[in-house]
Amino acid sequence: MAYYFEPPIWARRQGCHLSPQALGSDYASAVERMEKVLLPAFDSWRSRGLTDMMPASPEPGTFDWLIGIFQAHQKWNELDITTQRQYRKSLALFANHELKDGSRVGSKQLSDFTKAFVDAIYGKLLVVTEVSDNGEVVVRERRRYANVAMASCRRAWFVGHRAQERMVPASNPFSRMGLRSRAPGQPIRPTPTATWDELVAFRAAAKRLDYRSIATAALLSWEWLQREQHVFGSFDISHYRPTERPNSVRIVHPKNGEEAWWPLLDETGIPLFPELMDELDKIKHISPQGLVFRRDHAHRRAATPLPWMTPRKDLRYLRSVVKKIIAEAGLRQELSFTSFRHGGFTEGADSDLTDAELRAAGRHRELAPVVWTAPRWI
After folding, report:
1. pLDDT digits (tens, 9 = 90+) for 206-215
2. Are 283 and 292 in contact (CB under 8 A)?
3. Is residue 373 exposed (0-12), middle (13-18) or buried (19+ Cβ within 10 Å)?
């Protein structure tokens, strides 16, 4: 087994200077090079140098110093690599903002931070001015990016206060900012929801491309309303039809820790999910232990197939494969693996399941996101 790095196609089309390269067969060395060399270089290109501007030895008590405290804390090590990268970019966006006096926000002492100061910086980060290729000045809002930056700063402040209580003020100026996910009057962008026909087309395309584990996983997400993090990161062979409960499946929700045993047969012994159970039975026969869904396609098959989710809880490779399957099936490009879970919610609503039943199925504590469409048998 060997490891390989390749920048996303969209990045290469936009001029990313990083080239594909082999990382060798040692996993630890490959991860170290990715984390310390390749991903920082990619982030530098993507942020246009923002992530390179952090001083190596920041002055104690400054916001730059707070970032260092956060990144050295155990709470930082508990984050997966994707979240760490997002935090780095978001913290850099805030810290590298230039003030009227020419100084960076990150160079300011934490004792000087007020809610009004943070709100003012947020207002500046919320809007960005760019010049197009034809010289036209374009002003656009980047609300989601700015909101994530404020949330990252809030987390850094809380962690910093616990680690350095004497130097980090207890009052967090990033708390309760009342951030909006969209501008006032802007319509809500609905989550793309797949139809049953799209699920069928997706599964057929996945099988043609030999991604059979993803084909089964999509049907499972539709039928049992499970998130991709659970499907690919937590669903174990031992959860499905164990010896002590051969007619049930154990559903564990990784987000809130709740679990439930679901019946697989009705009162007369007829399978409730015949197609899905047939495919899971075959997987269980081949792989009697471990995660159910692994990279078992022919061109990546190994003696022990790797999980789709990496040790860092990263699903980017899976998502790229899902997009490849969607393109092969000729489906809407806005669809994702999550779309099949939402499709299952929709069909559940059309089948007259109550809100409580939908919440129980998806392990929700709040109202399920239902989009009403016609049943597939119409």
Report:
1. 999 999 999 9
2. yes
3. middle
Q: Which residue type is seen at 239? A: H
d(CA 359, CA 338): 16
Distance CA 105, CA 275 (A): 57
pTM above 0.85, yes or no: no
> Is there a contact between 301 and 285 (Cβ–Cβ < 8 Å)?
no
Compute the distance between CA of residue 169 and CA of residue 160 in angstroms, rounded to an integer: 9
Cα–Cα distance for residue pair 300/1, rounded to 1 Å: 9
Q: Do 174 and 150 contact (CB within 8 A), yes or no?
A: yes
Which positions ≥6 away from 153 have C-beta within 8 Å? 90, 91, 94, 118, 174
Q: C-alpha angle 4/300/36, rounded to 5°?
A: 25
Q: What is the pLDDT of residues 279-293, one digit of tens each?
A: 999 999 988 788 999
Query: What span, in angstroms and rounded, lies between the C-alpha atoms of 373 and 215?
Result: 23
Does pLDDT of 189 surpass 70? no
